[in-house]
Design brief:
alpha+beta; 2-methylcitrate dehydratase PrpD; 60s Ribosomal Protein L30, Chain: A; four-stranded mixed β-sheet; two-stranded antiparallel sheet; 22 helices
Length: about 450
């Protein structure tokens, strides 16, 4: 079956006029959430390093580097804007694929749209199409793609960025298939090893996917062809899904329900700046702290019970010299900082905060357990149970089965507006209000530059 061709054909025809109203709303919320992540990520030293390096290459171009007050060329702008979409680890995601589509699709979309002076309806079309192309390959290989050592935000995100750019350029089905084929040839390996090791290069995966996706689409527009069966492969067994997955991919997920179920409707939003696998524990801890006002000095031990992949991915401890990436992927750190600070946002990821001796000592009291009953309901539920035992024997227990932000317990427009304001720091709040209002009215924006130039 021509899975890639069918996906390309569908994505080339995504039309604002045919989209369900709830899908249009979700696309706008994805853009709004993206802006929150950009602002939050600009607080991190590693992000400043990325921006400084890219800026040193020259700033000739007309594409906005969001939140930074300068413009550069298409590819470098997408690289920075994808990095800031990813770095704070509060980006949107899809649990069925373990990926974060917005970190690649939205920066690529905004870069091309700004370059071509396009309107909000065109942007919504491109985002919806891009999410299909990013999410469906990720779902076809989940979780084996990640367990094979790849990060789908970088790999599959490149397909999404290429398709979003292709939709804005009004590619037909053949050109769109070439854009996907090109993407499958030049996409980043995006190794999970860097994430698990806490190396800060991890933060560029969204930027690399966005920039590379633009290259794939640009080459397709210039007549460069890529295999129109790149995802499923041919008799040569060289298809992307096969060579990057330890188990046989479920290729039917590439086309299953196309036009009936839009994958963007499966997106969750994050209230916290950490890996989604930590969110059940974070939410449970914050709930206990809000109700019981626990003094961390009174704590004897903390047990967190969760599902197997969470223990594997985010069960590790941190130390005073750990990076913010390691902290984002550590339940012990997340639980400890939620208890001490009562929140989990950008300032909880600074080097100064992570190096706090008392905070690290508290995190060392957290033990992670794989729970058979919680494992049985995964991935339908991503449950975590936090049990805090005080030195006097008092015990507090809280379990969260569906963390906030899931479509079943969604973050709504007002929640994400609050997130933008929280992450925007000391920026002019009247300007932030204007940005939020314009994004929530995106379909009536005639030129995306009216938004990008004020972010």
């Amino acid at each position: 079956m021509d899975y890639t061709k069918k996906l390309a054909e569908f994505c080339s025809k995504v039309s604002y006029d045919n989209l369900p109203p709830e899908i249009i709303v979700t696309a706008k919320l994805c853009v709004l959430d993206y802006v929150a992540n950009v602002y939050g990520s600009l607080e991190l030293d590693a992000v400043a390093g990325v921006i400084s390096y890219i800026k040193s290459l020259g700033t000739q171009g007309k594409i906005s580097v969001l939140g930074c007050g300068f413009k550069t060329d298409l590819h470098n702008a997408a690289f920075i804007n994808g990095t800031t979409a990813e770095a704070i680890e509060s980006q949107d995601g899809v649990r069925f694929g373990g990926n974060h589509p917005g970190a690649a699709v939205i920066p690529a979309t905004l870069a091309v749209a700004e370059d071509l002076n396009l309107n909000g309806k065109r942007i919504i079309e491109a985002i919806v199409a891009g999410y299909e192309a990013a999410n469906r390959p990720a779902a076809a290989m989940h979780p084996w793609h990640t367990l094979s050592g790849f990060l789908p935000t970088g790999t599959c995100g490149t397909f999404g960025a290429a398709v979003a750019a292709g939709r804005l350029k009004e590619f037909d089905a053949t050109q769109m298939a070439s854009a996907i084929g090109n993407a499958g040839y030049i996409l980043p390996i995006s190794t999970a090893e860097n994430l698990m090791g806490g190396y800060t290069i991890k933060i560029v995966q969204g930027g690399q996917a966005a920039s590379t996706g633009l290259m794939a689409a640009g080459l397709a527009a210039s007549g460069v062809t890529g295999a129109p069966f790149i995802i499923e492969g041919s008799q040569l067994n060289g298809g992307f899904a096969k060579i990057t997955s330890a188990a046989e991919p479920k290729l039917e997920r590439l086309v299953e329900g196309l036009g009936e179920h839009y994958s963007i409707s499966d997106v969750y939003f994050k209230p916290y700046t950490a890996c989604r696998h930590t969110h059940g524990a974070a939410q449970a801890t914050l709930r206990i702290q809000a109700e019981k006002q626990v003094d961390p000095r009174d704590i004897e031990k903390i047990d967190v019970y969760t599902y197997g992949i969470a223990k594997l991915a985010v069960g590790k401890t941190v130390n005073r010299n750990s990076s913010f990436v390691s902290a984002q992927f550590s339940i012990p750190y997340v639980v400890a900082v939620c208890l001490t600070d009562g929140e989990l946002a950008a300032k909880q990821l600074t080097e100064k905060r992570i190096s706090d001796v008392d905070l690290i000592d508290l995190s060392n009291k957290v033990e992670i357990h794989s729970d058979d009953e919680l494992e049985k309901v995964y991935p339908e539920k991503t449950s975590s149970r936090v049990e805090i035992q005080l030195k006097d024997g008092t015990k507090f227990v809280e379990q969260v089965d569906i963390p906030k932000g899931d479509p079943r317990d969604p973050m709504k427009a007002n929640d994400i507006v609050k997130k933008v304001k929280q992450f925007s720091g000391i920026r002019n709040q009247n300007n932030i209000d204007t940005i939020c209002s314009k994004i929530l009215d995106l379909e009536n924006i005639h030129n995306i530059g009216d938004i990008t130039e004020i972010i």
